[in-house]
Amino acid sequence: MDGVVGTYTIKPDQVQLLSALLILIFIPLFDKIIYPLLAKCNLLKTPLQRLFTGGILAGCAFIVSGVLELQLEKTYPNSLTTSQANLNFMNTLPCDITVNFNGNDEEIAQNMARIFEAVEAKTYKLTIKAPKCTGTEFQQGEFEITPKKQQYEIDETPEVKTGGGFTYLITFDIANKIQLAYSQRSDDREKPKEGTPKVRFILAGEFFEKLSPKKTYISLFNDDGRDDYDYVFDVIDTNRTSGSGNIGHTTDTQEVEPLPYEATLVFGGSESSGDTIRVPLKSFETQLGASYVVTISKNGTYTADFKLEEEVKKPENYNLQLITITKESSIHMAWLLPQYIVLTAAEIMFSITGLEFSYSQAPVSMKSVMQSAWLLTVAFGNLIVVIIALIPLFDEQSKEFFLFAGLMFVDMMWFAYMAWRYVPAKLEDPSKKKENE
């Protein structure tokens, strides 16, 4: 979720402090203001009425959570079985192209990506044409690609997992023949647990092949001008593969802060030797909860007097594009506040009132036992939550929230019936009993 508030970014684990803060605020608020006002309206005067209302509010809190989760699910990556993959094609040509994939023609605009979701992991024939390019005629490319199947440590049943995204860069060589470059590593499609965005880089095309023996990396700088992150490219992923294009240089995936960054491509020898080349690239900005692949390719076409040693130093020869693999968290964390407020009100009305009621209705010899029994019911409730969470009843968590809401409402209907038949115990005050003795 989006936690940006002004210049500060709220982390997901910091939101949990809101529950404790609201409890500290609500206890005196209910005791001094809300309960007295309701009593004047002849409402919620007895503990059983408060207990019932608190339970209903708890169910409503689950409904609010479920509705919010439905909106969050729209930003989650699609689920894939172990025999499926997502294929991401990035057009780095200086014009729109036509890709014939799986028997269908698909148009991909210049510097845009096209993701084919949940395709079967098998061999596909791919034909790429560029009929709309003006000034330069690109020879069409024909390739065969075989996305890897999902492999997991626990794979006894076809569990639905996320993963299996592969990025292919549509580039061209010095003869203006269309090439297909790819990374042997799959895209990281999982939502970051801490909310921080994930970024990795792919460097592909004949323009970069002669750079492979050298140390090549990307440096990211934020607005403060600090060298925050370095991404080192692999040099083992540079051999051509027959019939399927060439393998691009790639980096590991790193989690970065959600900030705008200036990217600099660095290659050559060591800084001390003086032969290191630093090329500033286009800036980009990352968002909370997103996963990105940044592609770097040759910008523009090759000229007759092209000289690699000179051209690699020019920033205008580089085309940097940010591809969103997993959508950013577009829903703000402030939308968590309603469910926290409703749930805290439910906890004040149910837990505190329940403890007070069970203690006051128990005889002196059973008061400690009743408090233990109350805590035991809490333990059983937590056990039910654990069991439901472990059993894969639903693919979406929103359905799980609605299930808890339904269970809560059914439980409160039974509780209302028992409360209606309940006869309060009339216990003698222990202090008065001692006075009479």
3D structure, described in words:
Helices cover 31% and strands 25% of the residues. Residues 150-162 and 236-245 have low confidence and may be disordered. The strands form 5 sheets. It has a 5-stranded mixed sheet with strand order 6-3-9-10-14, with no helix packed on it. Strands 11, 15, 16, 20 and 21 form a 5-stranded mixed sheet that branches. It is elongated and about 105 Å long. The protein has helices spanning 17-40, 47-72, 308-311, 337-361, 367-390, 397-421, 430-436; strands spanning 4-5, 8-9, 84-91, 97-101, 104-108, 113-120, 124-129, 141-145, 165-172, 178-182, 198-203, 215-221, 227-232, 246-247, 249-250, 254-255, 260-268, 277-280, 284-285, 291-298, 318-326. A hairpin with a 5-residue loop joins strand 9 and strand 10. It has 437 residues and is α+β, with helices and mostly antiparallel strands. Helix 2 (47-72) runs antiparallel to helix 6 and helix 4 runs antiparallel to helix 5.
Structural class: alpha+beta
Task: Pick out the low-confidence regions.
Answer: 150-162, 236-245
Let me know the average pLDDT. 78
Please state how the strands of the largest beta sheet are arranged side by side. Answer: 6-3-9-10-14
**What is the helical fraction, as a range of percent?**
25-40%
Radius of gyration: 31 Å
Number of helices: 7
Query: Got a strand count?
Result: 21
Straight-line distance between termini: 65 Å
Q: How would you spell out the order of helices and strands?
A: EEHHEEEEEEEEEEEEEEEEEEHEHHHH
Beta-strand portion reads 25-35%
